[in-house]
Specification:
4-stranded antiparallel sheet, mainly beta, Immunoglobulin-like, 7 strands, 58% strand, 93 residues
Length: 93
């Protein structure tokens, strides 16, 4: 785990990937702000909001439990201020 405050926004690839049924998503924010971390299916429908909260600058880890979802590819997306980033993850059951 990294200690301190990041110098830029970051969104890491989930681990493990592929996963079943729980995965970890790490992200870093260099300034305090409202953070939204959401999961979408491949058609763009929002599945779940993992994080929707004000966070202080720092490094964070979020767990995602997909035990109620079908196998497939999903997109996770983070928003904080003007920063937006998205990555793919694969659920294999």
């Amino acid at each position: 785990m990294t200690i301190g405050i990041p110098d830029k926004f970051s969104l890491a690839q989930n681990y493990p990937n592929p996963f079943n049924p729980v995965t970890t998503i790490a992200y870093g924010i260099p300034v305090s702000g409202n953070v939204k971390l959401k999961v979408f299916d491949m058609s763009g429908r929002e599945i779940i909001s993992i994080v929707s909260d004000f966070k202080d600058a720092g490094y964070y880890v979020a767990k995602f439990d997909a035990s109620s979802l079908a196998s497939g590819t999903y997109i996770y997306r983070i928003e904080c201020g003007n920063f937006v980033s998205a990555m793919k993850m694969l659920l294999l059951k």
